[in-house]
Design a protein that fits this description.
Two copies of one chain form a homodimer. The first copy, chain A, has a single domain, classed as Alpha/Beta hydrolase fold, catalytic domain (Rossmann fold, 3-Layer(aba) Sandwich). Chain A is of the alpha/beta class. Chain A is 33% helix and 23% strand. The first copy, chain A, has nine helices and nine strands. Chain A binds chain B through residues 7-11, 14, 61-62, 64, 66-67, 219, 221, 251-253, 255-258, 260-261, 264, and chain B through 7-11, 14, 61-62, 64, 66-67, 219, 221, 251-253, 255-258, 260-261, 264. Chains A, B: InterPro entries: AB_hydrolase_fold, Esterase-like, S-formylglutathione_hydrol. Chains A, B: The active site is at residues 146, 222, 254.
């Protein structure tokens, strides 16, 4: 693993690291914020999964999350959103291929050899983080934005016991029923929609739910709200009686100005679960 | 004036606006954060001047300042760092020309027609802001980073009574004695160094000082510290008995990870002066 940069930040260290990934068959880069407390021993870890077109860098520089993580004594990891590189398949559209991994393990060509973000985020990267840094891997929670909110919700519901809490900012809530989803799930997983189910937060809510607290924020002026389909997830939460806070935030849109506004809430929400 | 964007942000509005500038002879773009309180009447204004290579956008997206400005009920303005456009003189070096206006009114060719950032920031933009938005122009303070810290300090000391307080993150403290300064002051103002004096914070501290509180933060691991020459300003502050806090922050560098870490302190510092 190579260190790209380390910057002092809110009393801790904001690092960027690159490593060869078996899951993705290419080099992968991630950001990791370690609070001051990590100098004395392992700290809990909050995952932040980013949205379409993002790299590890967007949330790391624009979400303002380190301020609150430092206050709560939490580490933050910012993974990339897809495999990358010259030898990695790509597409001209912004919402397929590099920058748009959708947090699945692709089974279809040309994506199958590299597009294994599910395995990367749920297996390879946690193993690497736990072996390398002062992280208490028994205390993990997960959040994300847009496509990353989809990833956070589906991982939390598919892996019971892994995450103490889950939250999302403007998540893609029902990809099997929206243009942000059907195209990508077809490309990565094929036309058989039974393989899609576990990658749809609304369907997973009806099937499994989440054994822990859940927090979801969506801006009432989100310019992509028709693609996110929050109404399907809200109905599934209500039908299941899932303990959750589902909030429409008046006037906010899909941008990082929205994410940063509610980041303090989300980090405090996860800290409550992680320190319980 | 044209509105480029407005995003809900921490209960207020983060806007971006473009207008034709008489001072600079081109279109200029700035960011303006208005807290919720601006819906009910004029609010105090904190200026943030950015550093080399930056536009209006860097601090607006990476400094995390809106969180604290919202808490304190302050507006924030993020001006650009130079004139821009095809008809505007430029240089191949990152530290001269577009993105590197150095907050002076150039008198030398080819810079003189457009490079009038002093007049733009101290006259034209405040007049426009005061006439257009709910801002209490009797309550202004100023801060900045690197070249912008230089701008903030020199404007505050040259314009007694304008700003209630001044602060800076890793400012260029002594441009007449450093490679970040001599080259640009020569290009913009000519070889006669008497014209440079008022654009040097260390010299202005010895000549005039500042009638109000001053806060300066510099990282002890700042990779550009030899170009900033903080020792000259520290000595001038001490010699003058200027009321000021001059802090070397252990382990921090020149990045926005440093700026964002101490932004809460700086906004609270200015709020104390602005609401007094």
């Amino acid at each position: 693993m190579q260190k790209t940069s380390e910057n002092a930040c809110f009393g801790g260290i904001q690092g960027v690291y690159t490593h060869p990934s078996d899951a993705c068959g290419c080099d992968m880069t991630f950001g990791l914020f370690l609070p001051q407390e990590a100098q004395d021993g392992p700290v809990p870890l909050l995952w932040y999964l980013s949205g379409l077109t993002c790299t590890h860098e967007n949330a790391m520089t624009k979400a303002g999350a380190q301020a609150w993580a430092a206050e709560q004594g939490l580490a933050l990891v910012f993974p990339d959103t897809s495999p990358r590189g010259d030898g990695v398949a790509d597409d001209e559209d912004y919402d397929l291929g590099q920058g748009a991994g959708f947090y699945v393990d692709a089974t279809q060509d040309p994506w199958a050899p590299n597009y294994r973000m599910w395995s990367y985020i749920t297996e390879e990267l946690p193993a690497l983080l736990g072996a390398t840094f002062a992280l208490d891997m028994d205390r993990q929670s997960i959040t994300g934005h847009s496509m990353g909110g989809h990833g956070a919700l589906t991982m939390a519901m598919n892996l019971p016991g892994r995450f103490r809490s889950v939250s999302a900012f403007s998540p893609i809530c029902n990809p099997t029923g929206a243009d942000w989803g059907r195209k990508q799930l077809t490309a990565y997983l094929g036309a058989d929609e039974t393989a899609w189910e576990r990658h749809d937060a609304s369907l997973m809510m009806r099937k499994a739910g989440f054994d822990g607290p859940m927090l979801i924020d969506i801006g009432s002026n989100d310019q992509f709200i028709d693609l996110l389909r929050p109404e399907t997830l809200a109905a599934a939460i209500a039908d299941r009686r899932q303990p959750a806070s589902f909030r429409l935030q008046k006037g906010y849109d899909h941008s990082y100005f929205f994410v940063s506004t509610f980041m303090e809430d989300h980090v405090a929400f996860h800290a409550d679960a992680l320190w319980a």
